Amino acid sequence: MCGIVGYIGKQQAAEIILEGLEKLEYRGYDSAGMAVYDGEKVNIAKAMGRLQVLKEVTHGGATVPGHLGIGHTRWATHGEPSDVNAHPHTNKNGTIAVVHNGIIENYISLKKKLKNKGYTFKSETDTEVIPQLLDYYYNGNPLETISKVIQRIEGSYSLGIIFADHPDEIYAARKSSPLIVAKNDEGCFIASDATALLRYTRNVYYIGEEEIAVLKADDVHFYDSDAEEIEKPVTEIKWDANAAEKGGYEYFMLKEIYEEPKTVRDTLNPRIRDNKVVIDELNMTDDEIKAIGKIHIVACGSAYHTGVTARYVLEGMARIPVEVDIASEFRYRDPLLDPSDLVIVISQSGETADTKAAVEEAHRKGCQVLAIVNVVGSSIAREADKVMYTWAGPEISVATTKAYSAQLIALYLIALKFASARGTISDDQLASYIHDLRKLPQQIELLLGEKEKIQKFANRYTAAKDVFFIGRGIDYAISLEGSLKLKEISYVHSEAYAAGELKHGTISLIEEGTLVVALVTQKDLYDKTISNIREVKARGAFVMAVTNVDNPDIEKVADYSVYIPETDQFFTNSLAVIPLQLFGYYVSLGKGFDVDHPRNLAKSVTVE
Ligand code: G6P
User: Fold this and answer.
1) Is 596 helix (H, G, I), strand (E, B) or coil?
2) Is 603 tagged catalytic?
3) Class of domain 3-237 (CATH, top level)
4) Which CATH superfamily is domain 241-449 in?
5) Residue of minimum CA distance from atom 15 in ligand 1
6) What's the pLDDT at 106?
7) What is the Å distance from ligand 1's center to 223 Cα?
C-alpha cells in the first residue's frame, strides 16, 4: 500500500512519477521508490521516509532518466518501513519490476513454492512474490504471463509492471484495489488515485476486477484475466482536486466507512486457511495458549471499545477470564498481573502514549504482550512481544471507523484460535463461526446501501442536545462506540449505558423527545432490553432500535428500526456499528462541521 503512479510517453518518466506521488502524499506513507527504463536496463531508486528524500537521492529524477517508469509510495503492511521493503520489487536479474497496492493473502505458500524452485527473497513483503512468480512463468509474452500470475495470487492488488525486454509498454492489473489508466497527447499513465493525474488529464479508464491494461506511449489496450481483449469507455472525472483526494466522497470519514468491507476482508482472509484460523504472528503452541491464566486488554478510545467487545467474545468462546482497562487507568492502578497472564494492547496508530505505557507496565510485571496495531513499525509494534497487524491501510479521518472494524476482526480471530486450542469449541462450531465471519464484508456492503435512510433520520436530530445509547452485553460495547462516534464529531452530548443500569440514575435525564438509541442484537437479552425500551418510552423518549433482521417485533416498541443481517451473536458489533458510524457522520455533516477534523481532538495522542 499505498500510492502508484506510472508513465510511458514523450516526457521524462521520473519527473511525472515524482509529481504524481507528491499528490498522493496526503494518504500517508513511509517510503517511496521508482523503476525507470533507461533504454538498456531498468534502474531502481528507493528511499525510506518522505518523498523529498527520494527526490534528493535522484536529483529530482535526473539520475533515473527514461520515458517509461513506475513509482510507489509504501505504507507498510508486511515488513517494516525500510529501503529494502520499499517498492518496486524485482526478479533476480532486475528485468521485471513491480509496484503493488493491496495484500497478497497466499504469499506465504507462494514464497515457499518459489524457494523450493531456487528463488531467493530480499524483502519481508508479500509483494516480492509477484516479480518472482512473473519470472517463473515468463515465456516472453508479458500479457500471458501476467494473466497466469493473477490467477495464482489471492487477495487484493493493483499492479504496475515493467519488463526490460518489452521497453515500449507498461502493464497494469487490479483486483479489489483501485487503479486507473489515462491518456493524453504526451503519453499514458496509471495511478491508484485520480488525484495524481488531474494535472495531466481528466479522461480516464477504470480497470475492472482482474483485468489487465497494456499501455504504450500513444495507446492503451485492455484485456480480461484470460488475456482476451476487451473495450473500455473513457470516463471524464468531474471532481475537483480536493474531492478527488477523497475518491469523490465529501469527507475521508465516509470514504473510510466505505472501505470497511475491504478492510474486514484484508484482515480476515489471509488468516483463514483450510477452514482453520492461522495467525502466524502469534507464534504460540496450543499448550502455551492453554497455559494462559487470564487476559488483560488495554487500550484507549475506540480501541478500548473493541476490547470491551472482545471480553464477551473471548470469555464466551474460549472461556478465559478477561479484564479490560482504559490504558490511562491501567498504568496507575498497579494492576495485579501474573506472568502467566497475556496482555493484549490495541492501537490503530501504535503511538498512543498511555497504551505504550501499558506495554511497559506489563513487561515490568513479567507478562507477554500481544499488540493489535495498524501502523507497521510503530512504537507499540516494536515494543510488544508479538504483533498482529490490522490491515486497514492509512486512516486519515480523526474519528476512526475502518481501523475499529479491523480491530474487531483481529480480536474475533484470536478468540477463535484460543477457543480451538483450548477445546472449548468443536471443529463444526469453528467452521460455522468462520462461515459467518466470511459473510461480514458483503453484509456491511448491504448496510452501506441503506445509508440514505440513516441520513434522513440523522437530519432530524441535528439539533439534539442529549442522546443515550443503551444495550446489554455486546450491545453495551456497541453503544459505547456509537455514543463516542456521535459526540466526537457532532458535539452532541451523548452517553452509553448498560441498559439495565439506566434506572440507577440516568433515566431521570430522559425527557419528552430525548433520542435513545437501543442496541438489541443479543437474542438472549431481547426481552430484557425491550423492557428497558418501554421504560424510556414511558418517559417520553424517541427510540431508534438497531436489531437483527429476525426481530421485527421490535417495531411494537421502537419508533424507528434499523435491521442488521443475520450473523452469529458474537459478531453483531461488526454490523451494528455501521449505522451508528453513519449516524454520527450525518449528524456532523448536517450541522456543517468539518467531519474529519473535530475540534480539540487528535488522530494520535502521543502525550499523557
Ligand atoms: C484518539 C483517536 C481515537 C482513537 C484513540 C486511540 O483519541 O481520536 O479515534 O481510538 O486515540 O488511538 P489508537 O491509535 O491507540 O488506536
Assistant:
1) coil
2) yes
3) alpha beta
4) Glucose-6-phosphate isomerase like protein; domain 1 (3.40.50.10490)
5) 347
6) 94
7) 43
